[in-house]
Amino acid sequence: MQFWKKIKKGVMGTTIVLTLGFSSYQSAVADILDVEKDELKFGFIKLTDMAPLAIASELGYFEDEGLFVTLEAQANWKVLLDRVITGELDGAHMLAGQPLAATIGYGTKAHIVTPFSMDLNGNGITVSNEVWELMKPHITYKDGKPVHPIKAESLKPVVEQFKDAGKPFNMGMVFPVSTHNYELRYWLASGGIHPGFYSPNDVSGQIQAEALLSVTPPPQMPATLEAGTIYGYAVGEPWNQAAVFKGIGVPVITDYEMWKNNPEKVFGLTKEFTEKYPNTTLALTKALIRAAKWLDENDNANRLEAVEILSRSEYVGADAEVIANSMTGTFEYEKGDKRAVPDFNVFYRYFATYPFYSDAVWYLTQMRRWGQIAEQKPDSWYDEVAKSVYRPDIYLKAAKMLVEEGHVEKADFPWESDGYKAPTPAEDIIDGIPYDGTKPNAYIDSLNIGLKSKEQIKGSEVVGG
Questions:
Q1: CATH topology of domain 123-262
Q2: Which of 93, 123, 381, 443 has the fewest CB within 10 Å, making it most exposed?
């Protein structure tokens, strides 16, 4: 795509289109945004949910907006965030908790925003073969197969067995403010296993823990499991399916089974970037929305093509067969136990790309539940933080332009939303506790394990309430 750098924008935001014989490029766009910065570098981690970035690049959606984008894999989530903050990266595929944590000052302090949610679902929890064999006597079977969802109650006797033998039960997650950390904690707690607290003086997250969670980068999860350093992990694809293919572990539950259509990654930018380059921000959001639509359209008809793209070394770099195992409407649990899970990866339908405030609030409640937010906050605080980070105003402006250009349908977007989804019903969540983003403190108080809204960690004890 380097030849595009020779095309200069004309007056009034129009583009001089050169006919270069590239049949894949459609020159239907007459008026594009007069972007303030056209050469951009975006970061990502090697996970299948970076797909909107790869597709926007490969299908020319960025170029359609006058953007010349370089995509660069990053070593880990911390490096990725730091490089966005310093400006080495213009934006990145991020854990949803990263913009929120940075903005409130948990870890590195910086105001990060998101105008685009990248996907729903897409994660799983995998245990080692040894642990799976120990779990089996506590799992319900039907027609010779485990009944799903598998709840953490079946893991609790195994954790207790390890404790009685004097062995810590170690598990991996990808980052302290990752969806995977909060989902793993949610699943464990729903089964009566305490995953531990954080405090201002102890950021290990292992205060009072029965299962000890620590950070492992996603691509290293299978090898760390195989080495016996951890006994299970929560991660995005393709690293659960990789354990199945290697014969070293068994994915026991997907996040879709824990919380139907739960929010996942976001695209993050500094607030400074969005203010300095508003048209560029709109342009990149438009390209990402188009990529998300392509990934889901015609009942996932494009997924095999997406799998081929993602399997390339410059993107995820895993075998196409492994990526396809979860990307094309199925998910394999125990070897040979492949089941239909058509919504395991959702990129566009169900308003997946809209940055809902209620999604942000859920992450904040989990930070508070486990002590990363040390003190009680009023409901209004959760709302204010959500609105300072999640930017549906930018998103809807980009969507409106796409509708006018004929790339998307008006019905694809929740134009009248106040930013809060309807409460998630009890039957859609693993512990049967409904979630209402407008009432964060009441929700926190309804959860069985974890800090209640008025409690704090002092030393290694829970006080207050």
A1: D-Maltodextrin-Binding Protein; domain 2 (3.40.190)
A2: 381
